């Protein structure tokens, strides 16, 4: 089911109970994908039951990216392995590639961390919304 379909089904007042319930147990997460040098907006749906595990995986991935970012700082001051011109150029090139300049390592890693954080926040919000809606429905049934 496409994200737009799930959202439309969950919001529709004329959708039968079981179909509406199935759509309501899906969360839509907005993201971006890189394609041919450009960035496009995309989205996907996640079963509400899967969100806690997905959040943990995203947090693990974000932590790995943070470690990569720390390593990139060390690359900025890499010592050439030798005194020859090639070693000097290699160290200089690696140092430049590890900066925060557009297209460089640190900038790309920071962008990845930001995107993961955005998705974690969206998933946590979807889970909170689902739980509060579920609790409100349970309270009305009592």
TrEMBL record:
Highest taxon listed in the record's lineage: Bacteria
Task: Alphabetically list the UniProt keywords.
Answer: Coiled coil
Q: Which residues form a coiled coil?
A: 106-140
- The question of whether Coiled coil is a record keyword is answered with yes
**From which organism does this entry originate?**
Saccharopolyspora rectivirgula
What protein name applies here?
Answer: PE domain-containing protein
């Amino acid at each position: 089911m496409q994200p737009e379909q799930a959202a439309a089904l969950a919001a529709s007042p004329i959708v039968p109970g079981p179909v509406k319930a199935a759509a309501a147990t899906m969360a839509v997460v907005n993201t971006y994908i890189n394609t041919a040098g450009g960035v496009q907006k995309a989205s996907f749906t996640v079963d509400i039951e899967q969100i806690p595990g997905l959040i943990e995986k995203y947090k693990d991935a974000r932590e790995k990216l943070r470690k990569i970012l720390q390593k990139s700082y060390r690359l900025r001051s890499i010592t050439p392995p030798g005194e020859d011109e090639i070693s000097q150029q290699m160290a200089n090139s690696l140092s430049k590639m590890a900066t925060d300049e557009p297209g460089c390592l640190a900038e790309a890693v920071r962008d990845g961390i930001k995107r993961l954080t955005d998705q974690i926040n969206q998933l946590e919000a979807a889970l909170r919304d689902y739980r509060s809606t579920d609790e409100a429905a349970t309270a009305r049934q009592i």
